[in-house]
Amino acid sequence: MSTAAHDRRIALAQSAVAAQIPLFDQGFGAVESDWKSDGTRVTSADLAISQNLQDAILAVFPADQFFSEELAEVREIAVTSRFSWILDPIDGTNNFALGIPNCAIALALCEDGEPIYGVIYDYGRRRILRGGPGYGVFDGENPAVVSQAEPGGKAIIGFHSPVERGRYPGHAEAIAAVSKIRALGSSTLHLAYTAVGLLDGTVDHNVRLWDIAAAIPMVRAAGGEVRFLGPSPLPLRCFSTDMDRIFYVAGSTSMCDGLEAALS
Question: Which of 14, 95, 165, 169 has its CA 20 to 30 A from that of 142?
Answer without folding.
Answer: 95
